[in-house]
Amino acid sequence: MTQRINYIQQSPQLFKKFLEFSNLLEDSAIEESVRDLVSIRASQINGCGFCLDMHVKEARIHGERELRIHDLATWRESTLFAPRERAALAWAEVLTKLPEHGVPDDIYERVRTQFSEKELSDLTFEVMAINAWNRANVAFRTVPGSSDKAFGLDKANLA
User: Which stretches are annotated as coiled coil (predicted)?
Assistant: First the structure.
């Protein structure tokens, strides 16, 4: 396997600004548990091992139940997710795998029944951010767990 560049070292100012943007999402109108679920699901879809590892650990630190994390890949069939969480997951999926003709009205309407305009806007930025992180970490094959100590993820005790 070809050694890839370290994009953080190569573009430190861009990384810093994007990290600042991502950190702003912590104060968004979307609750932490929904942000965790969305980040995990988008990372599953995009095949980003680094982000999947990171967000599973964060979710566990935040108190998320292990079974719900396992059920995320099949959230439509699972009974463990509330309507608001289901709407957020549907929004995350449709924005992660944009259909050829855009977001279908039925998905938009379903999401609008669960989120205010501000919340939907903030949720969209959350999905945008995780997809961007996924793309960078997939492109450069960032090793899962390689930043655990720096991000305090060693506290998850999931080594």
Answer: none
Could you read off the pLDDT of 87-120 as tens digits, one per residue? Answer: 999 999 999 999 999 999 999 999 999 999 999 9
The CATH superfamily label for domain 12-145 reads: AhpD-like (1.20.1290.10)
Angle at 66 between CA 62 and CA 68, to 5 degrees: 95
**For 16-59, how does the pLDDT look when each residue is reduced to its tens digit (9 = 90+)?**
999 999 999 999 999 999 999 999 999 999 999 999 999 999 99
Separation between Cα atoms, residue 88 and residue 30, nearest integer Å = 10
Q: Is the dihedral of CA 98, 102, 106, 110 positive or negative?
A: positive
The residues near 34 (Cβ < 8 Å, ≥ 6 apart) are: 84, 85, 88, 123
Which residue is associated with the tokens 């930025």?
Answer: 125
User: Is 0.70 surpassed by the pTM of this model?
Assistant: yes
Q: How far apart are the first and last CA of the chain?
A: 24
Listed by start position, the domains of the chain span 12-145
